[in-house]
Amino acid sequence: MRLILVLFLFAAASAGQRIEPWSENAFYWSLDGEPVLLAGGSDDDNLFQWPDERLRRQLDRMQEVGANYVRNTMSDRPDGGFEVYPFFLRADGKYDLERWNPEYWRRFERFLQWTAERDVVVQIEVWDRFDYTSNRGDGRWKKHPYHPASNVNYTAEESGFADEYPEHPGRNKQPFFFTTPEQRNNQTVLRYQERFVDRLLETSLRFGHVLYCIDNETRGEEAWGRYWAKRIRRRAKEAGVPVYVTEMWDDWDLKGEEHQRTLDHPELYDFADVSQNNQQKEGQPHWDNFQWVRRYVADAPRPLNTVKTYGADGNKFGHADDDGVARVWRHVLGGAASVRFHRPPSGLGLGEKAQGVIRAVRAVEKEVRFWDLEPAQERLLERDLNEAYAAAKGDEAFVVYFPAGGEVGWKTAPGTLDVRWLDAVTGRVHETGPLTGRGSLRLSAPSDGHWIAVGLRR
């Protein structure tokens, strides 16, 4: 009743622009009816937890460089020392899951308000499997309010929770993710999980710039994600507010069965997050796998988001800066609805290189709208493997990306096109000029490195 009352009072005046799939091309999002490419980067995944001034500076920097998209896990693990849990901490050092910590929810609402003011779309992840594990040796699970020794609401016997879960959460051994009625029907814990999600929605459904993802790279059972997707949709319907929901699977192969749980169910999952494609180390498979997904959903197109782009020098996965840059550009030209650099050290975050790439994306967007383009690899001539990637608008415009310099032919109608070369990492214009051909043009990158060629017919 409290949830419905709050939403009744605020839904009519929800803050920020309203995001939804674009009516004219459902592979892309729109804000208040206008098509938009979501592009971003941030230095953390749960920015809502950040102290006020630090958060304000990060969001201002996003706005300055043209970033309009951010990931926000509802994570509360104390990695930075400033994070807080959503539940009330009693004087005896135990949490009461029946009572809230007002500071957690103040931070969340402040974050949504500030992103709305800057037209930065927020993709929420409700659950993060790394919050409930012991496998990193930091006692994360033992500290968590859901641990039976940390709260006054249930015992280990009542909850079925063990003292530790030392295996990687990808093994899906944590019973926290088996509570729903179609799984183990653990009503002792489920009531508190439901209470948390409902409280989240009390705030988030007042804002129109929010997307919902159930988990971070889960290997959970299908029933888990479906339960929470249905609950979010039901609560939103009660409030008279549209919502868009997805699940993020861990499988690096987008053709895998896990991803089909989302791709085959547009009635439940309005968009797909295929971020794990960014674990593909080779450029051509990275492009091909994304194109496979695009073809797979072509009869019922919907936005394909990539909220995590891996790739930064020195990270433990062996993905370099160049990988992160190339993955963003391949997804942009391949027709992704969103791209975002993952936080350091696994990604470029909102560092200088990420800022430059976002500026470059916006510079190209001023010349040609990405939602007007279609992937066009078949028009590249004499191309070596991974040498170039292309999108085009018929014979009127093209964008070709070179990850490491090179020279290719471009098949086009006879005539002259104005071709502009941009540094794909900074957005700086290198040179412009007309190119005339009788059915094809030669495109030669100015040097090694990341380059973009933009061609517009005269």
The unreliable regions are 1-13
Return Rg in Å. 23 Å
The strand line-up of the biggest sheet is: 14-16-17-22-19-20
The main sheet comes to: 6 strands, antiparallel
- CATH class assignment of the largest domain: Alpha Beta
Distance between the termini: 61 Å
Number of domains: 2
From the 3D coordinates, which CATH architecture of the largest domain would you assign?
Alpha-Beta Barrel
Strand content: 15-25%
Estimated helix fraction: 25-40%
> What's the shape?
elongated
Number of helices: 11
Coarse structural class: alpha/beta
* CATH fold field value of the largest domain: TIM Barrel
What is the arithmetic mean of pLDDT? 95
Number of strands: 22
CATH homology group of the largest domain: Glycosidases
Structure description:
This protein is α/β, with parallel strands linked by helices. The protein folds into two domains: 2-372, Glycosidases (TIM Barrel, Alpha-Beta Barrel); 374-457, Sandwich (Immunoglobulin-like). It has helices at 2-10, 52-65, 102-117, 140-143, 156-159, 187-204, 222-239, 257-263, 283-296, 321-334, 352-367, and strands spanning 19-21, 29-31, 34-36, 38-41, 69-73, 87-89, 95-100, 121-127, 210-215, 245-246, 272-273, 304-309, 338-341, 374-375, 380-381, 389-393, 397-402, 407-411, 415-423, 429-437, 440-444, 451-457. Residues 1-13 have low confidence and may be disordered.
